[in-house]
Design a protein that fits this description.
Layout lengths: L1 H25 L9 H13 L2 H18 L3 H22 L5 H16 L11
């Protein structure tokens, strides 16, 4: 039963990642006006010219991996630094927008728990 719940959380997180990743390219979800500090931070990231497309590709590929349940344990390792950054940015700069980042961060932890046997070699002492 718990495996089905974990898989459901993984699929929902995957769908969210695909939608948020595609939104960075297609801009079909209007974004709320962020707090001034978050706006400054986002403007700096956007000015680099490559961070947002890179994040979008990582989100889309990770989301598809989570939905298909192929390479999910690997993609969580790729997605984790992105989500830690998103979660902390919202936590400190724009707490009102933290819900999505918090859920996906929670889902990454669930996916890691679900696939804990695959990480044994990484954490072997």
């Amino acid at each position: 039963m718990m495996q089905k719940v974990f898989l459901g959380i993984q699929v929902v997180a995957g769908l969210m990642l695909v939608v948020f990743g595609l939104n960075k390219f297609l801009d079909f979800i209007p974004m709320a006006t962020p707090a001034p500090e978050m706006g400054t931070y986002m403007s700096a990231l956007f000015a680099t010219g490559f961070i947002f497309p890179l994040i979008a590709v990582i989100e889309i590929v990770s989301g598809l991996a989570f939905i298909s349940n192929k390479f999910a344990s690997f993609m969580v390792l790729i997605m984790a630094p992105v989500m830690v950054n998103a979660f902390l940015a919202h936590l400190f700069l724009d707490p009102a927008g933290i819900a999505g980042a918090a859920f996906i961060s929670f889902a990454l932890i669930i996916i890691m728990i679900r696939n804990k046997d695959r990480y044994k070699e990484i954490f072997k002492v």
